[in-house]
Amino acid sequence: MKSAARKDLTVSGPExxxxxxxxxxxxxxxxxxxxxxxxxxxxxxxxxxxxxxxLLDQRHxxxxxxxxxxxxxx
Length: 74
Prior knowledge:
Blueprint: H1 14-22, E1 29-33, E2 53-60, E3 66-72
Antiparallel strand pairs: 1-3, 2-3
């Protein structure tokens, strides 16, 4: 699938993202961390799987939100 793709594909949602990580088809990870607690929820990254991520870029916004851009390393 990865080699056949000609365009970027955005994966969102924890279940689909976990499957994409398991299939090793993720090239980049963009996380937006918002400084607010809304209770329990689903994790942004898959549970029970060790991920090695290389930080490529980070950006801080005036409202406290942080954007983290990673590349998975193998």
